[in-house]
Design a protein that fits this description.
- The complex is a heterodimer of chains A (291) and B (257).
- Chain A has a two-stranded antiparallel ribbon.
- Chain A is globular, with a radius of gyration of 19 Å.
- In chain A, helix 1 packs across helix 9 and helix 5 packs across helix 6.
- By secondary structure, chain A is mostly helical.
- Chain A is 71% helix and 3% strand.
- Chain B is α/β, with parallel strands linked by helices and 257 residues long.
- In chain B, 36% of the residues lie in helices and 25% in strands.
- Chain B has 10 helices and 10 strands.
- The chains are: A mainly alpha (291), B alpha/beta (257).
- Chains A and B meet through helix 6 and helix 7 of A and helix 2, strand 6, helix 3 and helix 6 of B.
Chain lengths: 291, 257
């Protein structure tokens, strides 16, 4: 019973890591840039929701605010690509990394200025409290988080498989030059990928805030999500989600069964092991090009 | 001439400090196959990339149906009706054959017509129909080339720019692909601009030809005339002109040098 309990809370955490990792991988695949502000994007998405929904701010009903949040975060992602990232287009990878790290700081302090640095809690319909089934204490929020993530995954899957835009995004990430040759406006598609990453971050943020308190430093779990993306295989969308789940599940088990402190180390120890023994990640999609 | 589809005038393109194209002028008439021959580094690929908008020229004009398309973004050039089938296939490796073809029709939205063109492509390349649900990266080189050509056709282009379709293929496969290109030109009326190192197959398919060396056009004419010219025979087709004693005694000089 205890195992099941640990598993569910671990999976719920893992879903949040996985969704952030998904944002990393989406942007990396489309633009070959790593957005180190993805964790802060998540936090921003959560705070935007909080600002719209919570009664002490605007007090809009949650389900009305939700589409608004997606629009805000999507437009923000698109604009960031348009204004900030295209300015460093053609510069080295390091420039992009530094810009996105700086962006993370800017978001963190802007959020602190607007909504304060104190932990707050989001009035989320997913925050349902606990339920006792025999010996088992289940956080309903955890279960809700897992369900929402599954739905989100299916939606994204359908988006990439069925829509023209999704197909074009895949094409642009697999072979940018050929995408140009097919008449795909690659730059606009990359902007749309940033928008999508913003929306995914918003979902991750809402899920994160449903599970507990929220403050501007919440974005730091982006580091763990980054590790999850690498473990899963940077460049593979299912890999990112699975990597997130693995990291999420390892933590509570390490906390329960290993000496204190190990649970913080465990994800990174796994990261190092993966880099040593399977450098492309656990679920990598690599295929040599035929000539 | 009124039926000129694509005209290039005094084009100059640079790769950084290197002048890859040094004032090229040529024209492609509607319904014809024009080949541009030349060795490695002659600037053939650069010429195609400049036409399709991947690279920007320093000087010169590219006229397509009378409009100057020089400096257009690549996707606008595609929308105008110029499709570039790049060197080395460049398919989308993790997408299926069918998805690759669907992306060829990215700029179009008429579903029924797209489905018809897909059947047309499958008709010309039956192997693609067989492999339609397979990832393109798992196809053989020849099949990938067929897919790249089929994907280009899905755009229903006014003109196809073909960059070395014979690259890395066996002579037999090359023959097969060129036979299909010939049928496409004759039956569907697809205008083609074909860049090749394999002069023999290219001249057989083409109506007109240009020879490029070091970024310049050094010779032009109908394909038949080029094929019978001594220079082309000895430098591009590899026919030896033998001396009286049955061996070559001096190094032939090209007449354009």
């Amino acid at each position: 019973m205890e195992v099941l309990q640990l598993l569910i809370s671990g999976l719920a955490n893992g879903c949040v890591y996985g969704l952030i990792a998904l944002g990393f991988v989406l942007i990396y695949k489309a633009t070959e840039a790593v957005n180190f502000a993805q964790g802060d994007f998540m936090m921003l998405g959560a705070f935007v929701t909080l600002g719209l929904v919570n009664p002490e701010y605007m007090g809009i009903p949650f389900w009305l605010a939700l589409p608004l949040v997606f629009v805000i975060m999507g437009v923000l992602g698109y604009l960031l690509d348009l204004v900030v990232l295209r300015a460093v287009f053609g510069q080295s990878q390091v420039a992009v990394i530094i810009v996105t790290i700086a962006l993370g700081f800017v978001i963190r302090f802007a959020v602190g200025e607007i909504w304060g640095h104190e932990p707050q809690s989001l009035r989320s319909p997913l925050a349902l409290g606990d339920v006792r089934v025999g010996d088992l204490v289940l956080g309903l929020a955890d279960v809700a988080v897992i369900i929402v993530t599954v739905i989100m995954t299916i939606l994204l899957w359908q988006f990439f498989q069925r829509t023209k835009m999704g197909l074009a995004m895949q094409a642009a990430s697999q072979n940018q030059m050929a995408a140009y040759y097919m008449g795909i406006p690659v730059k606009r598609i990359q902007g749309m990928v940033w928008a999508l990453a913003g929306i995914v971050a918003a979902v991750a943020g809402i899920l994160y805030a449903s599970k507990g308190a929220l403050d501007p430093s919440a974005g730091f779990i982006g580091i763990k999500a980054f590790a999850a993306a690498v473990i899963g295989g940077f460049g593979s969308l299912p890999g990112a989600l699975l990597g997130g789940l693995i990291v999420g599940v390892i933590e509570p088990f390490a906390a329960r069964y290993l000496p204190p402190g190990w649970s913080q180390i465990a994800p990174y120890a796994l990261l190092i092991a993966v880099l040593l023994f399977r450098p492309h990640g656990l679920f990598a999609q690599v295929r040599a090009k035929k000539v | 001439m009124s039926d000129v589809l694509l005209e290039v005038r005094n084009l100059e393109t640079f790769y950084g400090p290197i002048m890859a194209i040094r004032g090229v002028s040529l024209e492609v008439r509607k319904g014809r196959v024009v080949t541009v021959l030349g060795a490695n580094g002659a600037g053939k690929t650069t010429l195609l990339k400049t036409i399709s908008g991947i690279m920007d020229p320093e000087k010169g004009k590219i006229l397509f149906e009378g409009k100057d398309i020089q400096g257009w973004e690549p996707h606008r050039v595609v929308q105008a009706g110029i499709v570039h089938v790049p060197e080395g296939r460049e398919v989308f490796p993790l997408l299926t054959v069918e998805e690759n073809l669907a992306l060829g029709a990215y700029t179009r939205s008429d579903r029924a017509e797209i489905a018809r063109d897909r059947d047309l492509v499958f008709n010309y390349f039956p192997i693609l129909a067989e492999r339609r649900y397979q990832e393109a990266g798992t196809l053989s080189g020849g099949q990938q080339q067929m897919l790249a050509i089929g994907r280009g056709l899905m755009l229903r282009p006014e003109i196809m720019l073909l960059d070395e379709p014979s690259l890395g293929l066996s002579p037999l496969l090359t023959q097969e692909i060129f036979a299909i290109l010939k049928r496409l030109n004759k039956d569907e009326g697809v205008t083609m601009m074909l860049v090749e190192q394999n002069a023999a197959v290219a001249l057989e398919l083409a109506d007109d030809g240009y020879v490029m060396e070091l970024g310049r056009i050094v010779m032009s004419g109908t394909a038949d005339r080029l094929a019978s010219s001594e220079d082309i025979q000895s430098f591009y087709l590899g026919h030896d002109t033998e001396g009286a004693r049955g061996e070559r005694r001096w190094k032939r000089k090209k007449t354009w040098r």
